[in-house]
Amino acid sequence: MAEHEDWTAGDDAQLRRAMATLRHDVEAVPLPDVRFVRARGRARRRHRFLGLTAAAAAAAVVAGTVGYAAWGPSSSRTPLTPASSARTAATTPSSTTSTTMAASSLDQPGALPLVGEWASSLELTGSVLLTPVKPFGPVECLQSEPGTKVQQEEITRAPEVQGGQVRFRIGSGQDAATAADGVASDIAGCRLAPGYKVTPASSGTGERVYSYTAGDAGSGWWAVVAGKHDVVVLQVNQNDRPKSGFTLAQVQELVSIAQKRLARYGTGTKATASTTSSPTFTGPKAVDEQMPVVGPSPVPSWKLFVAASQWRSQPLSSGAATSAGPGAMEGSTAVASCETDQEQAGIGGRVGVVSVRVGSSSTGYVGKQRVQLDDSSGADVQQSYVDARLAEAKALFGKGCSTGNGTVKSTPGPTAGTWRLDTVAPDGSPIFSEWVGVTAQKTPGAVSTIVVTKLADPKQGFAELDRLIMLARQK
């Protein structure tokens, strides 16, 4: 092609200015890979209610104030429940069971519904976990908070149900019903991302219920409940479901329990419940098993670790027995990719690791658990220690890294504080995957990091990780 003879320096400058403007516009609103949008959207849909991150919603061009729950939590996972049975459990009427549960459980103090009441109302099967969120986080969709947040909890049932509840104490001289109307208005007009649609489902004295759909990010329900001096916001998320399997009647049953609890234990009542509580569990219970703990002396007690025998499952070990091996740490307390010995050496407190394997071969290891413990006498110091470890894990595992073995890509799990780390080697070797979860434990000052490195069914990696985390939280 012949070269144009009439192209001038002025023409060149004009084209450069046009291209620079286009570049600025494109960078201002990037178009992300659809796999990224879907993956992040699903994960954030699961996590937003309890506020750990302020992040974009499922579409990368829409920003909003959202959150991610403290890890001590969501949420509890169990081996993956078949979708068909989950739908049956969610849609089969059992009003008698729900009513009986509510009547017998209302004598247990608490201004918010208890774990059994959630399970009964929504007919949840399998293991259900209700965990306090500390420190409190923002609630998505709310433009402003109606009062002082005094209680926040996360509910989780594997594989796809996650939600939460938060209670606001309304200030003196303010009307709780009016404050609840403001919250309901925020929720009704909420647009977290393109495709996020909120639909009014019912309203009555002191309560409003809304359903929502969010495309690939799932579906669920919102409810706002007003007491005498409190406003409660309930949220139920079913991730990856375009339409919720829960019915309006089931959500209204939960709302009814919330109303009764506010009337009995809410702000200003004689039986006002404490705003702090310990994690509550249904499903598998953690057991004690004496195991070798490796680490600098003195190591944390073996009682703080998940029993090696409880790692055994069909998805993880093909049903084969699991046991604690001697480990091959050679003094290292780093248990997952992106961690370094130097970094771990700078962390105070006690630390120990238990390695779990199938059989007795050195190639049979399926994972590890590390416990970090601040056994100081001060509760505030212990809580600060736990918070620091959780924040470090989020910063470390949440973004991936580059190591001498290759590039580590991080994918967030469906539960707060869980990730899959995929190490991609430059020489084309098979990808090495680790499922990593970090959680606070029942023992003050204790934090667990669980790493699963080998599974019979890798598709169940997050479900198995969540099952082990649920057991660790009970320690």
TrEMBL record:
Highest taxon of the lineage: Bacteria
Species, as recorded: Pedococcus ginsenosidimutans
Keywords: Membrane, Transmembrane, Transmembrane helix
Protein name: Uncharacterized protein
Source lineage: Bacteria, Bacillati, Actinomycetota, Actinomycetes, Micrococcales
Region (Disordered) location: 72-103, 269-289
Low complexity composition-biased segments: 78-103, 269-285
Segments traversing the membrane: 49-71
Keyword Transmembrane helix: yes
